[in-house]
Write a structure and sequence with these properties.
3 domains; Rossmann fold; single chain; 14 strands; 407 residues; six-stranded mixed beta sheet; Alpha-Beta Plaits; 17 helices
């Protein structure tokens, strides 16, 4: 596979005025958090909520009239599907998208809304891809690969082109890696414009395929469910791997919890909704902030297509980890007036009761005692500790049920 800077320049000319040239601007709150001079490339603002429209459009524009009439087929966890579907509809090309059965519902419905036919097959991208390839051979569709394609890589590379053009002071770019198409294109473009710039990739610990290939190691990975489903690729592409080994300076790994925290950070500090794959670069920067302290670092926010229920759960888990939402179990005497005393103590301590559950039957405390479980909003972990101490000093033995550590 041979993708050149000239290919990326041609791709940029092809897609100009058809895709959004997304903002690339400094993020002061993230600079304060990490110590690096952070710049964000907001690909989550694209028409379909992710960067994939770039490569998809370049590929579709390269098809012959015969190939367009026959239709295209793609395999995707969602963002590539929407990119192909969006421009296939614009160009009048029939499109079929094969998606893993565990694809988030929001990505399925958005793909169908683009008038692409969705087929659910396989437990992961590899199985979905194999099914799509079989259909393409049988029915004569053109297979549009999400990353292992020169046209697609050239399209994704326009991100790196725009970042360096808009922010020429950048010392480094960090982007997530699934199959490797995005980082391959970004690295080719960025280093052509600035040979001294460094490009770093990020994978999640549950799917470290390119990390293992790059570092020539074997990570004990689960290859199961991940919040970063957009980069959940089990096997590295030999083609993108070759580009990455030549052009990329290092690949990091981050945990599921670190990605969750990065998602929460984007929402709370920048009011930006980001999906797991899009949050991975920030998670890596936070983990390795000593390495990037004082440097100008661009983060590719690759997408924002996260299921609202998943986002809600992540935010609530984050509040619990920080001690801002806590579940307490309190032992009380089973007699009139005690509940009101407990709630008064909690209120006077500045905490807010969200939910209280008082039960007598399912407990191992003495007969004339009972337990109540209380969900409480607090300010932070110190506030939780103070609240527990106040309750205990008042004679109400209290313990924290929820996990509030950063582990």
């Amino acid at each position: 596979m041979n993708v050149t800077f000239k290919d990326i320049q041609k791709a940029a000319a092809l897609i100009e005025n058809q895709i959004l040239r997304t903002p690339c601007f400094p993020a002061c709150r993230l600079t304060e958090l990490t110590g690096a001079n952070v710049v964000l490339k907001l690909e989550n603002l694209q028409h379909t909520g992710a960067f994939k429209v770039r490569g998809a459009l370049v590929k579709l524009l390269s098809l012959s009239e015969k190939e367009r009439n026959a239709g295209v087929i793609a395999a995707s966890a969602g963002n590539h599907a929407q990119g192909v579907g969006y421009f296939a509809r614009r160009l009048g090309i029939p499109a079929i998208i094969v998606m893993p059965t565990n694809t988030p519902f929001t990505k399925i419905t958005r793909t169908e809304a683009l008038e692409a036919k969705v087929v659910l097959e396989g437990e992961d991208f590899i199985q979905a891809r194999d099914h799509a390839l079989a259909l393409s051979q049988r029915e004569g569709y053109t297979f549009v690969h999400p990353y292992d394609d020169e046209k697609v890589i050239a399209g994704q590379g326009t991100i790196g082109l725009e970042m360096v053009q808009d922010q020429p002071q950048l010392d480094a770019i960090i982007t997530s890696i699934g199959g490797g198409g995005l980082i391959s294109g970004v690295a080719i473009a960025a280093k052509a414009l600035n040979p001294n710039i460094e490009v770093f990739g990020v994978q999640v610990e549950t799917f470290p395929s390119m990390f293992d290939a790059y570092h020539q190691c074997t990570t004990d990975a689960l290859y199961g469910q991940t919040v970063a489903d957009g980069i959940a690729v089990k096997s590295p592409s030999p083609n993108t791997q070759a580009i990455i080994e030549k052009m990329v300076d290092d690949i990091f790994m981050v945990s599921e919890i670190e990605i969750e925290k990065a998602l929460q950070t984007y929402l709370e500090l920048k009011r930006i909704v980001v999906e797991g794959a899009g949050a991975a670069p920030l998670a890596a920067l936070i983990r390795h902030k000593d390495r990037f302290k004082g440097r100008n670092v661009g983060l590719v926010v690759s997408g924002g297509n996260i299921d609202s229920r998943l986002l809600s759960t992540i935010l609530m888990r984050g509040l619990a980890r920080e001690g801002r939402l806590v579940s307490l179990r309190i032992k009380i005497m089973d007699m009139p007036g005690v509940l009101s005393k407990v709630t008064k103590i909690i209120g006077n301590a500045g905490a807010n009761i969200i939910e209280a559950h008082h039960q007598r039957l399912f407990s191992d405390v003495p007969l004339k005692q009972t337990e109540m479980d209380v969900a409480v909003e607090t300010l932070d972990q110190r506030h939780v500790d103070d609240l527990v101490n106040v309750l205990c000093l008042a004679g109400f033995e209290t313990r924290v049920l929820s996990k509030t550590s950063d582990a």
